[in-house]
Structure formats: C-alpha cells, structure tokens
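Fig. S4 source data, part A: sequence.
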Amino acid sequence: MNATKILHYIALILGFQASAFFLFFLISDGVGDLIDGKFSVIPILIMMIFTVIGYIWALSKPKLGSLIMISGGVVMVLYLIFLGGLVGIKMALIYGLPFIIPGLIFYFVGNTETGSRQDNDI
C-alpha cells in the first residue's frame, strides 16, 4: 500500500471521527440550548454542518470537499477567537483543528491522485 492511500485512509478516519463526535455533541447540547431560547449556538451549528458537508463532499471530490472543510474549520477558529479573545484560543483550536487537519490531508492527497491520473492519461 503506498503512502497516498495510507494518508487517504487517515483523512477518512480523522474526518469521520471529528464529524461524528462534534455532530452528536452539538446536536445533543445545541438542541437543549435552542429549546431554552439560547440562540448563540446557531452560528457554531451552521459552521459545523458546513464543515461536515465538506467532509461528505471530500469522499467523492477530495479537492473541493477539502477546501470546504479547511475553510469551515478556519472560520470556526476565527469566530471562536473573536468571541473568546486569546483566552479562548484553546477552545477554538479544539473545534477547528479536527477539521483543518483532515481537510489538508484530503487536499494534498487529492492533488497527488489528480496529478498521477493526468500522468497516466498522457
């Protein structure tokens, strides 16, 4: 098995773990907050859904899906740093990095796979 396939599977596993964990966590916690009338959870829910859509998209189109994952993760990090200041950087990285890292792996694996396909077509 070559390194590209291994990195692809690592990105699949990391992306799935992050997507499943944060979706279950935010849906269970976010629904309770919404029922209580706390609407401050809506932006994070939207960003999280956006990044999970990027993961799902990366399964079929790694380059495009990875860009969505990376941008969603970066937006989450910036939003949480904006809300919490530099004190909240730890929470921002906890929420953003699990999507940025697999997104970067998907992006680089997608570029190498596309390059090798183009080389084979010539």
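Fig. S4 source data, part B ends here. The chain has one domain: 3-117.
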